[in-house]
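Example record

One chain of 206 residues, shown exactly as stored in the release files.
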Amino acid sequence: MNKNIGEQNRPDQITPEQITIELKAHGLFIDQIGLPASPIETLAAIESAGPRDLVFADKKDFLTTALAKKPAAIVTSEALVRALELTTGKTSVIFVVTNVPLAHAHLKTRFAGRQFSKSGWPNSIHPSCIVHPSAEIAATAVIAPRAVIGANVKIASDVRVMAGAVVENDVTIGEQSILHPNCVVGYGSVIGREVTIGSGSVIGSE
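Predicted structure tokens for this chain:
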């Protein structure tokens, strides 16, 4: 039986500090107004937003609706903050950015893959997977249907190996990395933390 490492709870939550760092890294951050009343867990559409969601509002009516929904966080523009004379988000933290659609794209790329607990599979390792007994897989990793995990593989916390991906022998995969469907990670490869490997990609093949 494969060994499970790291039995700690899955860190699905996104902190305001992480969002600010990501926005600043891309030159998008202007200001932060307030703090979230609830943890930030998912990116969502405004119409379906709940108290733990992060939403994006690039129009006045969108922002008005978002404020009424009271999500954990709202990303919007400086012009809209001025138009509505916002000094507080009440129950929401408001991130003021230079470009809302661009912020949406970067934050989705950076954080959407973390929502492992919503993958729909009752177990972290799907029963259709082939996993070598010597593989070490963190308890918070998700291995989707038909994935193949080779001998002496080490998979860190919050990694997602998606359907049909192949991880060959002696591979190490760092925290929060995502392997998209049908990719191949070749023998002995070392994948760092927060790496995304695209569908059908071949990494480390001779």
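Notes: Residues 30 and 97 are 5 Å apart (CA to CA).
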